[in-house]
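User: My instructor asked us to take a sequence, write out its structure as tokens, and then describe one feature of it. I'm not sure where to start. Here is the sequence I was given:
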Amino acid sequence: MAPHGFSRTPEELSAARSEALRGAAVGAAKFGIVTAFLGLGGTLFSPIYRALTIQFKVYLQVSGMTLGGWIEADKRFRAWENLRVREKRRLKALERDEGVWREWEKMVEEEVIGKANGEQKKAGVK
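Assistant: Let's start with the prediction itself. The structure tokens for your sequence are:
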């Protein structure tokens, strides 16, 4: 069962997946740029980094990109989910308010009709 008792439709699942994938791509790109600059700095200023094998340097680059993808995908998915939960709560509140409004209108109509019938009885009209 989904959180807050809301079930997920296939359209919602597809939208969630798309949002998480976009977040993963953006996060991987952002963290990839950062790790590339760190690698460049390591190459220019660190003899220890220069002594590392190319495979390990690639591993460090890919690790940074993977971490960024995870972080950004999770952030985007949570934001998307929060938006959907708020939207569903707002729709429920709107439906509840519409029901209260319909009851109020019915009560007012009954009161107006009741007064009109009472005035007709006083005037002798049947």
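For the description part of your assignment, you could build on this observation: The helical segments are 10-45, 47-51, 54-123. Try explaining in your own words what that tells you about the chain.
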